[in-house]
């Protein structure tokens, strides 16, 4: 495998990892605050639809993004209502949200656009275009770092950069701010937060809302940056992979980055059987190739990652009096 | 009143089922008639839908997809007075069923010829949806067309996945396309349902040519879609509905190039891409296939492809 | 401490929740310009109005009972088995191998043989994640998700490259021989003089599913193993104190869970399609999660939740047949049912409890000492399995 | 004092949890600068009342006056604003946070943590100096002992400048030395004019430090008296509603054969730290060996390895036959088969499945016994009958076997465990913290049962952090420090002072030792006691 292939592979990795990363960080906020969220998939899907739909109608991708985030937030509110206010089962609520998004997006798409659950294709300002970073063209010919900069670092949509910046930001919020301290505390021992005079409900809603925001961006990225429009079920299980990455990352922001990049790399490798063949020397059969990312995950999980301890109050509604 | 049963992809899959829907709609518009329809949600519904429509007196009942063969062979004998038509099936032996199949490999061969001629890099791509024999069948014809035109060409083939999600993952389709571009491909042929949307989009974005499938998809990215491999399911459905209760059953119809059941789409969106030379080569190949001078091998013949290794 | 009588908890709360879900669904139907009353009538008539409708409702329910039980058993040990889908796929493979390659003299023997194979294959597919969790600490949630994908790839490989009859377009196995045909409800009930629709796919697997409910109930609440599973699920330190081996419980529970999911294949593969097709499970493994959660991990609850989902599937099919309502509406209705009966049930329960309390207050002031007895074993915990 | 307004006045407080009336029309006045004790049986409503004052629960009815002013306390924030601080019975700390983080949680100075942390660090140092409350600000809560954790809770309240401090059963988890120090601090705070409410089950503490005391029973306030004008027997009677024996009545022991013989027992924990560093001890039939020590010095590990659920190395024999210390034959069930019964230190975590009903808990660990099974299935009728019988004999209240364990009060939960283990007629009973958090009435009963078992000729190994309890029940006393036995004394030839020094790792008990020296030693032992009960 030559250098440029490696760069291309990593470039693909970055694109594939971005929605996973955003969804994973979404899950991180929510679960760190003690609210499990298997509805990442549904929120991402809803956002993918609404951002494409509004971008298509208004011609502005930014309005689309806002709409995507709003729809994801609305589903977050449902999750919050069920799991925080009414202390319902967080897993069921997540399952319901996934179904709701899967059905609703197509239903509304059909009602609005009559294109069989799709949005029209997006053009021009209705899409996030790749950004060419300064000097990218000039640097392209510089050996080693030229291609690295031009191919891998430059040329992504703004949401990719936002997603990667979200990692240090998440870390900073969680570990360097008052809000982060409280948020982590509420996921570990809500009673401690409550008796310290801080609202458990408020914190958990805030966390769930941040999760909604990030899932909204993830969905918008799928349909308005990676793609130019919505296709039904286009999240294609990425919410679940993000969840797996979250556990893999032991609920930590930097680990989340590495975990999602790893998943992204597996996904990228799947599209390059020639690379795999050149590395291991034999042609990998098609179905094995499809299963490869998942097999690798299991192997790595079993081989190198110790026990992941979730936030202690995770999944449990905070009940003071029964 | 005729009835139409779509396959699991749903009637708006932008290809196979949608073509059927378009045919039926055309019939309805032209005749003012109405037709019953259902999109499959589960395997068990296949037989259910057949029976329910048969019992309700629908005639003919047109069904889409090879997966209907099995249910049809149990249901059709129970309703000898009802006429059925099934698309993509040709191996049943039932007196009240009309079986229509398409020579997709022949149509794919032709787009392969065009791809090979349009390619400057001598590398072309194929993106399949879920890894099933039908899709390999498409890819196999394509590869044969490419290799026959340019023996030095390389065909890169990828499948999107092994679950039904592979039909609706444009993001992955897009990524596969980019991977193929990185390997030098400058024409890609997508036979991947909703995933193909991502393939065509990325090809257009990256400035290479793409080839659509089933319906005419040239208009999706005018000037950037080289052509589409047409599979005239719409015509088959339209004809069946037109025939109505007079539908000729008990026969197996294979619609190939000769019958114009498959073909390549040339219209105002891609006419600038199709050179005269290309057109001539396509016409020649078509004629040779019709005449039997060129034999395009079907993947089904011995579950393997002479030009491509899956 | 129960505020409400048991009947209110078991019947009233779900009923009101269901009504709320129905109400919201009606609004959705209205919003897309259709008539909700007609739609509901169609669904009810289509799913429950004939033996034909029942036949399909029960067929789907049978699938969901198996996968629901699978998830429920694992929940009792606090294991969240999301892998029902993959385990059921593997079960299908087991059934197909048994049905195709062994010459069975009679369907009853074939049922036993195929059932064993289905259970075995499903069990193996669950045992690996179980083992990884017990021994390597790999989270069972991730590994079972991964195993779903791996199962799909494996099945794809087997059907496309190995089991597909040569020349067939369909990535499916050959049809099973006539000898392994399972009697349908029609054939079972005919000798009793009961006319049941001939064309519905419900078959003897329904009885197996019902029996599985009873067996699971016995297992969980009547056997030592079940006692240990529940103890482990409620408190791992306590289980350790009592000498209950975590490794053993994790493995055994996952094996039982996987076997139950695998068993689903005798219904859909052996009973209905009589051959193995790709995607034979159609998400029943995931519905099983909702069924188990809604059924509060109790076999009786699972049974009724499975029926409810069977009704939604069949009613939805009828809706799709006779109206132009998109099939996704059914998905939305399912979502609302899951949401209201499963996650928002407290929205109904809390005001109801207050209502019941109002009628109770005038009684003698109670202390913890004279509180109500807890309900029976049915009140097992189901929440939060992770 | 009549002219000043009471620091706290509650009027007509009522609170119901569902059908349970936890507080009924409670009124109470606490004057500023005093320590007010509250006693009452388990479940009497003490914690509930204080939680209402702290805004954790909302009262159904009633009013709260702080310094004479009517104050609404809808949440803890309001309580903190009103100058109230509370140390809960079950600490409200975030286990994987540092001490400092726990202290500033909810009382941060700005949006960013850094300034808050450095400010808190400074004031922590000065608070520590002022009150002798030394803690390592950077230690994780899960790594420090309960005593330390309690200091953190007190510091939390002081950091928030509380004038009113509520302590709910603060001494339940402390050693005598720690308790003494706590009381010194409370005295200091009182002298500074702060008001303190102290909930405890220990009458000695009430008598020692409080100015006034209130007694609660079944959700009602039954009496409030000046401490100086009452006596322990009177308080006990007010509490339980009958006369209580405050001493353990026992005959001298008549020890028989050696039942348990432990030689060179070592245990290494998951982190590779050696928790038991060569333990030698013997327990004979018909005697109680008391094991004293500060929590975290290896007693828990000793019980666990003897109970079969931790691995160890060494030579242990039971009735002369070796006991496996690791492997297949070393688990709870094989121990029980060998006649070892075990009342674990933490009944809620280990001894019971809180969501199981009492009858199910009644066979926990013995569920493989033939008499509880018929064939493949468990014999529920037999188990229930057995449970009813045990509950009647151990006076578990309410005697309802279908009630979930979590719905019994602490004392009654303990009786359920005790009944299960004692009624097995074991050769050896391992028993940890038998009366932690249990009220006087129940303590009396539990002590009687232990002595009765001894008198039947059984061997009993008792672990308790209550020196008083150790002294009252044991025939011989061994003291553990840092994974070793520091010394052994006959119960009637030693006293709290001598044992206290041994517990601090000081063997030459003849000489005088400075408080600082003892504290330093204790801190060392407590510091690496990451494992707490
Ligand atoms: N959060 C709660 N939800 C429901 N009921 C509760 C709750 N907390 C306490 N109770 C009930 O209120 C009663 C009073 O409990 P409380 O904890 O105040 O007693 P206590 O006097 O502190 O007992 P202890 O000595 O065991 O600490 C109990 O009998 C219990 O049934
Ligand atoms: N959230 C709750 N819901 C129901 N009952 C509760 C709750 N919290 C406490 N109780 C009950 O209140 C009573 C006393 O409560 P509390 O928690 O103060 O004591 P405990 O922890 O059970 O016992 P101990 O005081 O011995 O530690 C017990 O019956 C307990 O089961
Ligand atoms: Mg209390
Ligand atoms: Mg208590």
Automatic annotation (TrEMBL), chain A:
CDD domains: TM_PBP1_transp_TpRbsC_like
Entry-linked InterPro entries: ABC_transp_permease
Main location class: membrane
Transmembrane among keywords: yes
Location within or outside the cell: Cell membrane
Topology with respect to the bilayer: Multi-pass membrane protein
Sorted UniProt keywords: Cell membrane, Membrane, Transmembrane, Transmembrane helix
Membrane-traversing stretches: 12-29, 49-70, 91-113, 158-175, 205-231, 251-269, 289-309
Entry-linked Pfam families: BPD_transp_2
Identification of the protein by name: Nucleoside ABC transporter membrane protein
Automatic annotation (TrEMBL), chain C:
Residue ranges, annotated region (Disordered): 364-386
UniProt cross-references to InterPro entries, sorted A to Z: ABC_transp_permease
UniProt KW Transmembrane helix keyword: yes
Primary location class: membrane
Topology with respect to the bilayer: Multi-pass membrane protein
TM helices/strands, residue ranges: 57-75, 87-104, 110-128, 140-160, 204-221, 249-270, 302-323, 329-348
Localisation per UniProt entry: Cell membrane
One Pfam match: BPD_transp_2
Keywords, alphabetical: Cell membrane, Membrane, Transmembrane, Transmembrane helix
Descriptive protein name: Nucleoside ABC transporter membrane protein
From TrEMBL, chain D:
GO molecular function, one term: ATP binding
Encoding gene (name): rbsA_1
Domain of life: Bacteria
Signal sequence region: none
One Pfam family this sequence matches: ABC_tran
Domain ABC transporter: residue ranges: 8-243, 260-507
UniProt-recorded name of the protein: Ribose import ATP-binding protein RbsA
Coiled coil: none
């Amino acid at each position: 495998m030559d250098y440029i292939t490696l760069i291309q592979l990593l470039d693909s990795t970055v694109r594939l990892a971005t929605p996973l990363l955003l969804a994973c960080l979404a899950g991180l906020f929510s679960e760190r605050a003690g609210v499990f969220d298997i509805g990442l998939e549904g929120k991402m899907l809803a956002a993918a639809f609404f951002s494409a739909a509004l971008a298509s109608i208004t011609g502005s991708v930014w309005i689309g993004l806002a709409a995507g985030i709003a729809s994801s937030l609305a589903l977050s509110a449902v999750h919050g209502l069920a799991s925080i206010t009414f202390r319902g089962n967080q897993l069921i609520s997540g399952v319901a949200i996934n179904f709701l998004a899967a059905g609703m997006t197509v239903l509304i798409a059909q009602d609005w656009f009559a294109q069989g659950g799709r949005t029209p294709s997006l053009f021009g300002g209705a899409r996030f275009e790749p950004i060419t970073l300064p000097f990218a063209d000039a640097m392209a010919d510089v050996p080693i770092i030229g291609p690295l900069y031009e191919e891998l670092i430059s040329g992504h949509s703004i949401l990719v950069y936002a997603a990667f910046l979200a990692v240090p930001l998440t870390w900073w919020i969680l570990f360097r701010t008052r809000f982060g301290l409280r948020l982590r505390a509420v996921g570990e021992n809500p009673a401690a937060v409550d008796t310290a005079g801080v609202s458990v409900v408020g914190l958990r809603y805030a966390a769930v809302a941040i999760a909604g925001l990030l899932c909204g961006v993830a969905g918008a990225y799928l349909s308005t940056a990676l793609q130019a429009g919505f296709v039904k079920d286009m999240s294609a299980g990425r919410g679940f992979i993000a969840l797996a990455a979250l556990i893999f990352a032991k609920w930590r922001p930097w680990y989340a980055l590495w975990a999602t990049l790893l998943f992204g790399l597996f996904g990228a490798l799947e599209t390059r059987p020639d690379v795999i063949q050149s590395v291991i020397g034999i042609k990998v059969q098609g179905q094995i190739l499809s299963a490869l990312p998942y097999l690798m995950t299991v192997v790595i999980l079993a081989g190198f990652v110790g026990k992941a301890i979730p936030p202690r109050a995770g999944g449990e509604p905070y009940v003071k009096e029964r | 009143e005729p009835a139409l049963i779509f396959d699991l992809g749903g009637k708006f899959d932008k290809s196979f089922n949608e073509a059927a829907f378009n045919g039926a709609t055309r019939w309805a518009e032209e005749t003012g008639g109405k037709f019953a329809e259902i999109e499959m949600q589960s395997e068990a519904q296949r037989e259910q839908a057949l029976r329910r429509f048969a019992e309700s007196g629908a005639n003919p009942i047109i069904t889409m997809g090879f997966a209907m063969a099995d249910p049809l062979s149990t249901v059709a004998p129970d309703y000898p007075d009802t006429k059925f038509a099934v698309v993509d099936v040709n191996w049943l032996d039932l007196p009240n069923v009309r079986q229509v199949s398409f020579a997709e490999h022949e149509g794919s061969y032709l787009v392969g010829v065009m791809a090979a001629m349009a390619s400057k890099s001598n590398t072309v791509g194929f993106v399949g949806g879920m890894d099933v024999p039908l899709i390999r069948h498409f890819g196999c014809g394509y590869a044969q067309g490419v290799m026959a035109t340019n023996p030095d060409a390389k065909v890169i083939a990828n499948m999107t996945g092994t679950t039904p999600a592979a039909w609706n993952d444009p993001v992955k389709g897009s990524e596969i396309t980019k991977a193929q571009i990185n390997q030098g491909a400058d024409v890609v042929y997508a036979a991947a349902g909703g995933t193909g949307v991502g393939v065509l989009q990325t090809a257009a974005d990256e400035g290479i040519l793409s080839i659509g499938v089933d319906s005419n998809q040239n208009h999706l990215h005018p000037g950037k879609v080289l052509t589409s491999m047409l599979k005239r399911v719409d015509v088959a459905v339209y004809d069946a509905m037109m025939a109505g209760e007079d539908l000729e059953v008990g026969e197996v119809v294979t619609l190939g190039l000769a019958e114009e059941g498959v073909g390549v789409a040339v219209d105002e969106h891609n006419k600038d891409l199709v050179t005269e030379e290309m057109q001539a080569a396509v016409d020649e190949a078509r004629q040779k296939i019709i005449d039997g001078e060129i034999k395009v091998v079907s993947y089904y013949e011995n579950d393997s492809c002479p030009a491509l290794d899956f | 401490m129960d505020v409400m009588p048991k009947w209110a908890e078991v019947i009233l709360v779900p009923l009101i929740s269901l009504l709320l879900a129905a109400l919201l669904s009606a609004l959705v139907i209205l919003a897309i310009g259709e008539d909700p009353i007609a739609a509901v009538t169609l669904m009810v008539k289509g799913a429950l109005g004939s033996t034909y409708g029942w036949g399909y409702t029960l067929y789907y329910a049978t699938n969901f009972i198996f996968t629901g039980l699978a998830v429920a058993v694992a929940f009792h040990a606090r294991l969240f088995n999301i892998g029902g889908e993959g385990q059921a796929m593997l079960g299908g493979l087991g059934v197909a191998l048994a049905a195709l390659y062994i010459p069975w003299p009679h369907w009853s023997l074939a049922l036993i043989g195929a059932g064993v194979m289905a259970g075995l294959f499903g069990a193996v597919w669950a045992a690996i994640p179980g083992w990884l969790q017990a021994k390597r600490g790999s989270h069972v949630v991730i590994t079972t998700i991964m195993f779903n994908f791996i199962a799909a790839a494996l099945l794809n490989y087997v059907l496309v490259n190995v089991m597909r009859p040569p020349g067939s377009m369909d990535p499916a196995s050959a049809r099973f021989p006539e000898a392994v045909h399972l009697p349908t409800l029609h054939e079972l009930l005919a000798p009793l003089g009961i006319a049941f629709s001939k064309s519905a796919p419900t078959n003897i697997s329904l009885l197996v599913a019902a029996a599985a409910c009873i067996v699971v109930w016995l297992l969980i609440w009547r056997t030592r193993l079940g006692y240990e599973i529940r103890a482990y699920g409620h408190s791992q330190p306590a289980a350790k104190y009592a000498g209950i081996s975590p490794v053993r419980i994790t493995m055994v529970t996952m094996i039982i869970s996987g076997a139950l999911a695998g068993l689903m294949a005798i219904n859909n593969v052996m009973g209905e399609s009589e051959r193995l097709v790709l995607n034979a499970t159609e998400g029943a493994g995931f519905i099983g999660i909702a069924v188990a959660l809604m059924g509060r991990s109790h076999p009786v609850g699972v049974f009724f939740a499975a029926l409810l989902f069977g009704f939604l599937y069949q009613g939805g099919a009828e809706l799709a047949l006779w109206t132009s309502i998109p099939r996704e509406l059914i998905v939305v209705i399912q979502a609302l049912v899951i949401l209201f009966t499963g996650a928002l049930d407290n929205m109904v329960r809390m005001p109801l409890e207050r209502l019941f309390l109002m009628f109770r207050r005038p009684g003698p002031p109670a202390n913890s000492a004279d509180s109500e007895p807890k309900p029976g074993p049915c009140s097992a915990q189901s929440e939060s399995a992770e | 004092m009549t002219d000043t307004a009471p620091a706290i006045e509650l009027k007509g407080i009522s609170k119901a949890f569902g059908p349970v009336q936890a507080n009924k029309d409670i009124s109470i006045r606490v004057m500023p600068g005093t320590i007010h004790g509250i006693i009452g049986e388990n479940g009497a409503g003490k914690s509930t009342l204080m939680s209402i004052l702290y805004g954790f629960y909302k009262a159904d009815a009633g009013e709260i006056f702080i310094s004479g002013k009517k104050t609404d306390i809808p949440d803890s924030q309001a309580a903190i604003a009103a100058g109230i601080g509370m140390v809960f019975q079950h600490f409200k700390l975030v286990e994987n946070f540092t001490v400092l983080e726990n202290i500033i949680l909810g009382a941060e100075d700005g949006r960013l943590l850094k300034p808050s942390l450095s400010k808190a660090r400074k004031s922590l140092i000065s608070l520590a100096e002022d009150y002798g409350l030394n803690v390592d600000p950077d230690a994780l809560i899960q790594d420090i002992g309960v005593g330390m954790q309690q200091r953190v809770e007190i510091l939390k309240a002081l950091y928030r400048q509380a004038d009113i401090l509520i302590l709910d059963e603060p001494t339940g988890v402390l050693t005598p030395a720690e308790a003494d120090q706590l009381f010194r601090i409370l005295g200091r705070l009182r002298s500074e004019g702060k008001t303190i409410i102290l909930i405890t089950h220990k009458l000695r503490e009430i008598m020692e430090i409080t100015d006034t005391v209130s007694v609660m029973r079944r959700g009602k306030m039954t009496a409030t008296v000046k401490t100086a004008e009452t006596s322990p027997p009177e308080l006990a009677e007010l509490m339980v509603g009958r006369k209580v024996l405050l001493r353990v009545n026992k005959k001298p022991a008549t020890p028989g054969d050696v039942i348990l013989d432990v030689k060179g027992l070592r245990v290494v924990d998951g982190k590779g730290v050696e928790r038991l560093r060569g333990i030698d001890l013997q327990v004979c039939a018909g005697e109680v060996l008391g094991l004293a020590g500060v929590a975290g010095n290896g007693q828990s590990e000793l019980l666990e390895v003897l109970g079969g659920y931790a691995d160890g190395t060494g030579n242990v024999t039971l009735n002369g036959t070796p006991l496996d210390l690791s492997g297949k034959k070393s688990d709870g069930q094989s121990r029980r088969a060998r006649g070892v019964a075990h009342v674990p230190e933490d009944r809620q975590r280990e001894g019971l499945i809180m969501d199981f009903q009492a009858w199910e808990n009644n066979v926990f660990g013995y569920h493989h016994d033939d008499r509880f099974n018929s064939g493949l299935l468990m014999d529920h009728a037999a188990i229930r009958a057995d449970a009813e019988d045990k509950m009647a004999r151990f006076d578990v209240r309410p005697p309802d076997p279908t009630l979930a364990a979590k719905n019994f009060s602490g004392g009654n939960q303990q009786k359920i465990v005790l009944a299960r283990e004692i009624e097995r007629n074991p050769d050896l009973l391992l028993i940890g913290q038998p009366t932690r958090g249990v009220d006087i009435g129940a303590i009396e009963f539990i002590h009687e049962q232990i002595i009765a078992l001894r008198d039947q000729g059984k061997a009993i190994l008792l672990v308790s952090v209550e020196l008083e309890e150790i002294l009252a029940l044991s025939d011989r006393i061994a003291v553990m420090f840092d994974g070793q036995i520091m010394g052994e004394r006959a119960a009637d030839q030693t006293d709290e002072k001598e044992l206290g020094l041994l517990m601090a790792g000081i063997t030459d008990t003849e000489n005088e030792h400075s408080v600082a020296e003892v504290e330093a030693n204790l801190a060392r032992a407590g510091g690496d006691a990451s494992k707490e009960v």
